Amino acid sequence: MCSHFGTKSRRLRSCVRKCDYSGMGMRRIEPGRLNAALVAILREELGARGWSVRQLAERSGIPRTRTHGTLVGERPLNVDELTAFCGALELTAWRVVRRAEAPSARGAEPAGGAETPASPAAYAEAAFAKLDEVTARDYAPAASPRDGDPYEPAD
Hints:
Blueprint lengths: L32 H17 L3 H8 L3 H8 L7 H10 L4 H9 L1 H4 L13 H16 L20
Helix pairs in contact: 1-5, 2-3, 2-4
């Protein structure tokens, strides 16, 4: 039930005041930290170009009210919108996401919890080091002597 209207109505699909009522028993998704970092980068790029929200909306093809709601943090940014905004700003979406995942952009750890390597070579080196660490462990305690090797031929 919507707290602003007091009743459930079939005509009411979602509350215009952005409460948790959506007509289907679903809760509104709140933008998270990564979303906030992405929006901050987009706003920074808008400011650098001297563009208004209206100009970004026109160039991206996203309605102005939706663009405004996303850029002020009222609603989460979805992948299609990010792609459209980046295209309008002549940016590459994956690079914007990478910037947003950097600890300095979010004021915290990146989404995966580990520091993002600076280059693909550094990433590969870190992955191989972690793989070496995992494979160097002794797995003997996990094996049971009564269980035979399923790939060994039976006697």
